[in-house]
Design brief:
Elements lengths: L2 H21 L3 E7 L24 H16 L6 E5 L5 H14 L5 E7 L2 E6 L8 E5 L11 E2 H13 L3 E7 L27 E2 L14 E4 L9 E3 L5 E3 H12 L6 H14 L7 E3 L2 H5 L15 E9 L2 E5 L11 E5 L4 E9 L4 E8 L10 E6 L19 H16 L5 E2 L9 E6 L4 E4 L5 E5 L15 E5 L6 H11 L1
Parallel strand pairs: 1-2, 1-3, 3-7, 4-8, 7-9, 19-23, 20-23
Antiparallel strand pairs: 4-5, 5-6, 9-12, 10-11, 13-14, 13-18, 14-17, 15-16, 15-18, 16-17, 20-21, 21-22
Helix pairs in contact: 3-4, 5-6
Amino acid sequence: MNTSRKYIIIALLLLLGAFSLSAQVTKRALVIGIDIYKPENASGSNSSRGTWTNLDGCVNDALSIKATLISKYGFTENNITFLANDKATKNDIINSLKNLIATSKKGDIVFIYYAGHGSQIKNVSSQESDGKDETMVPADAYTGTSDIRDKELNELFYQLAEKGVILTIIYDSCHSGSIGRGLAEKEPKSRYLQPVANAQVDDPSTPHNLIEKNVLIISAAQDFETAKEQVDEQNNPHGAFTFAFLQALKTLPANSPAIKIFESIRAVVKYNGKSQEPVFEGNETRRNQSIIGTPRETISNTTTLAVLKNESKDNITLQGGYISGVNENCILQKIYEKDTVELQIVAVNGANSSAAKIIKGNFSLVKAGDMFEVTKWTFSGQSSLKIYIPSGSFDLTSLADVASKIYNRLKSNEKINIVSDLASANNIYTIYFNGESWILHKPGGDTIKLGKIPAGNFVKQIPDGSNVFVSLPAFKDLKNLLIEFYKTN
């Protein structure tokens, strides 16, 4: 055998080996959504928490994330563990995480999503400045079951990362920044429960650095902030953060860099009037990969919907609704060995369900589970403009005065660039009012409280050459002025 032929054979063997490894990669997900924290038939509470607030949009969020993973990122139903309400007890959640650890292999994709209440617990040996651990509140907490602390979750996530999986963690809960949810007609609910009275732990352990393990964590809010709920275009409740996440995935290609998706999330959250500051934690590699951690070129920009039922050629139910961006008259296609079948959507029944009919091809080929790709998009005829006005504590004069002071202090440093669009640049410093204090948010996730009237020295916290965006809150009379303008125009 000559040398050149030998090297060609070796190269082919290596290529086949690499292909074999790639083919064995499995995408797994754990998706959790909890709305019901105090069931109606519960006889009482064994927990010393004072009040219990059920939520409105967490299960919607979880269902929407599950549909997105399937339609845009190629996850299969069999590999998604879905825990909702009473199925999301502490044991259910922990055992599901342990099952992921046991079954996942090096190179597998693992995606974890949680929407529900967050809380805190005093840690007498905590190394954090507030002396508290942040917690995930399971569905059975009302029975006296303890929360799942951030350090407990950190250890389980670390065990996953140690196996060499590509791990993404998304949280939509209050105080979620370290454990890496406004309704239009009323004050938004927060995804936060008061801590259990007098509860404390003694845990001096230092959490593992998951970022060094190539883990991506995106959280709805800083560890001292609440996360709000709001409604979507169909008046269905969601978390403000997850609503923004879904909007970002509708407008950006599925293979967009994770950091670009995050920047879009931040922009939507702010434009919707929410003061919470989402948190992005990931190394340079994860910043520039897809949101699930694979190289961008491995993600198709197509949207696929699965067949759930095929009762007749005019009555086919698809798994995928407005969350996937589809509308009536969208066309989907699947190429079979002997024929090409096309479907047309005749009705969008909700976030994750559509009705379709066959307009081309042999109906007998269509089976439950078949994936159809959207090949023609249409747009909804409904109004796309909705205005949400958060409550404001400033009148117009005082807000203008504070805004002028902030502007002049920023302009005192000619090397600072004030931007008017959050999506116009990277690494933006944001100044916003959270209802109690002005906040300076740094690109890395750290925040500084500036007080009700920002002091002049806050500019020193912003490096030369930085981009700064100032988000002004609504003033008290804005709602009335807009209503009056609408009536007269």
